[in-house]
Amino acid sequence: MAQIRIQNVRKEFGAFTAVRSSTFTIEDGEFFMLLGPSGCGKTTTLRMMAGLELPTSGEIFIDGEEVGMKPASQRDIAFVFQMFALYPHMNVRKNISYPLVSQGMKREAVSARVADVARILRIEHLLDKPVGGLSGGDRQRVALGRAIVRRPKAFFMDEPLGALDAEFREHMAEELRALHDRMGATTVYVTHDQLEAMQMGDKIVVMNHGVVEQFGKPQQIYDWPATKFVAQFIGSPSMNFLDFEGMIGIGGDSVELGGVKVHVPAAREGRAGRLTLGVRPEHVAFRDDAPYRGRVSAVEYLGTTQIVTLSTEHGDVKARISSGQAVREEELVGLDFDARTLSLFDAESGKVLISEGNEGVLAHG
Ligand SMILES: Nc1ncnc2c1ncn2[C@@H]1O[C@H](COP(=O)(O)OP(=O)(O)OP(=O)(O)O)[C@@H](O)[C@H]1O
Ligand SMILES: [Mg+2]
Predict the structure, then answer these.
(1) Is-contact 159 192, C-beta < 8 A?
(2) N or C: which end of the chain has fewer CB within 10 A?
(3) CA nearest ligand 1 atom 14, residue
(4) pTM of this prediction?
(5) Number of helices (H) and strands (E), helices first, in the chain?
(6) Residue having the nearest C-alpha atom to atom 30 of ligand 1
């Protein structure tokens, strides 16, 4: 069990900065996601926590102890890589026992631990089988077994399901989460898949270009994105962005969009200039008398809902509405935005200006 704290951690590779001043805390027992697009610095961040890479500056604490100078082998962390390498000439039991045997643990203690792990992973029936003939999922379970048998303080996983097909991936994701819930060990999990992060994580750090954009619970990040980047990275279809020239004062709760007054949650910061109104597709409703108008340009049927694309004065807007609602292409409709759910950003910096739900949210400065 471990709490892991990252403070102003920075990593440079020569002239290139891979991670810029990251700060966040992973609480004991959390299933914690490092989320972001390719190249944003997720693996580098994880490797620094594990002790496989030295930070250029900043501090890393495990259970309050600064571990900067501690090598990986002394951090008591199990790293689960994407490529689950097993020893092909050994059976399942030997593969799982190996880390303990090589530590010199006594035979009976090893047997007891392996039995325990096999029970947790539900692979008791496989213990005496050679790993060569196992299915992909069973191999993955054996590899996990080898990681958990040491009872490390924390598990680090770098896109562990990346190589799997969609269906199996979903199944293993559920299994990993259930395993975590049974064991309660701190788990740090790297992914570029926003759905995986939302489904599995207790908390998420969203990174972009080496910067921590936001840190919080999945729903907090979805409902109150701290930056435009987070808003468009999480959710599908993405949040709609309506760019306009306007102003809002501190505590103000409306903006003027193309001559139409739109209510928004109270602003934490005032701004005049280029603003961006952020509207999730599911928060756009059609109302005949709504003054903000859009013309239907495309309709995509998705079963229970449909995605309707509308062209407006401020660009395309996607609405997710019930499939039962009749919509015709080229039709002109009034658009009603659910005021409590809107985001408002400074268009230049991309930072959110409204405060609701954003207390404690780390918007990078
Ligand atoms: N040893 C290194 N030397 C030089 N540059 C590196 C090194 N390791 C990583 N980088 C660069 O740092 C940036 C961040 O890399 P990192 O592997 O942490 O990204 P990532 O978020 O894990 O991406 P991916 O989703 O593709 O795995 C990338 O631009 C990468 O090219
Ligand atoms: Mg990576």
Answers:
(1) yes
(2) C
(3) 41
(4) 0.89
(5) 8, 20
(6) 39
Q: Which domains does the chain have, with CATH numbers?
A: 4-223 (3.40.50.300), 237-364 (2.40.50.140)
Euclidean distance between CA atoms 240 and 224, whole angstroms = 14
Q: Is 38 in the pocket of ligand 1 (CB under 6 A)?
A: yes
Give the pLDDT confidence score for residue 365 in this predicted structure. Answer: 35
Atom 18, ligand 1: which residue's CA is nearest? 41
Residue nearest to atom 1 of ligand 1 (CA): 13
- What is the DSSP track for 335-361? EEE-GGG-EEEETTT-BB-B-TT-TT-
Task: Identify which of 10, 11, 16, 207 to mutate to test ligand 1's pocket (most ligand atoms within 8 A of the CB).
Answer: 16
| Distance from the alpha carbon of residue 158 to the mean position of ligand 2, in angstroms | 7
Q: Tell me, what's the pLDDT at 294? A: 97
d(CA 268, CA 24): 23
Centroid of ligand 1 to alpha carbon of 311 (angstroms): 39
Instruction: Tell me the C-alpha distance between 131 and 148, whole Å.
Output: 18
Tell me, using a 6 A CB cutoff, whether residue 44 lines ligand 1.
yes
User: Using a 6 Å cutoff on CB, does residue 15 contact ligand 1?
Assistant: no
The SS3 assignment for 61 reads strand
Residue that has been written with the tokens 């990986």 in this structure: 72
Residues in the chain, pLDDT under 70:
1, 81-84, 163, 356-365
Among residues 288, 297, 341, 334, the alpha carbon closest in space to that of 318 is found at: 297
Residue ID of nearest Cα to ligand 1 atom 28? 39
Unique residue bearing structure tokens 């704290």: 5
End-to-end CA distance of the chain: 32
**Whose CA is closest to 216, among 25, 48, 5?**
25
pLDDT of 360: 44
